[in-house]
Amino acid sequence: DAGVIQSPRHEVTEMGQEVTLRCKPISGHDYLFWYRQTMMRGLELLIYFNNNVPIDDSGMPEDRFSAKMPNASFSTLKIQPSEPRDSAVYFCASSLLAGVSEQFFGPGTRLTVL
Amino acid sequence: SQQGEEDPQALSIQEGENATMNCSYKTSINNLQWYRQNSGRGLVHLILIRSNEREKHSGRLRVTLDTSKKSSSLLITASRAADTASYFCATAVRGGNQFYFGTGTSLTVIP
To answer: Is the pLDDT of residue A35 over 60?
Structure first.
């Protein structure tokens, strides 16, 4: 397996634009997590899915953020409209069993909002 | 916040020395995991220790867990320049599905 795949790796956009981040989890993993990492706040869990169903989105900062998982092999995190304070590295991770097994992280998407 | 805290925030040692990082957390846990993050990369799982375990080894890594003190330590023996990275602890809260990551320790191993 190629591991967790994220695209794009880097995204530079202007304030107000819509941003879509993509993730392909490891095949067979039932759990998918979206994290955001900044120097100030560290690694924050935004939302996680179990079998394509969102379970906990309490970490999503605002209504501008939304996430979907239309099937077991694809998830998106969308920010609309984007703001400079959204600049961060966004990670997707997947795991076989949440809470009791390791998480496999993608390489991340570095987002810069100008 | 349920987020754990690592101590120290930054650590610089010479190659060959041992590196010790500590993690404190706040709630009852199912297990605790340590991850490594190289600059510009995603996190990589190192080791998992369950709440009923006190010590675990994996190669040059030694992890201890003290649930009474709500703390864990990661020891890297005979460090190498390639060990330079940030190290995070992650706690799986009992009864929960997600992990809470600590603030990380930045380790620099000087050749």
So the answer is: yes
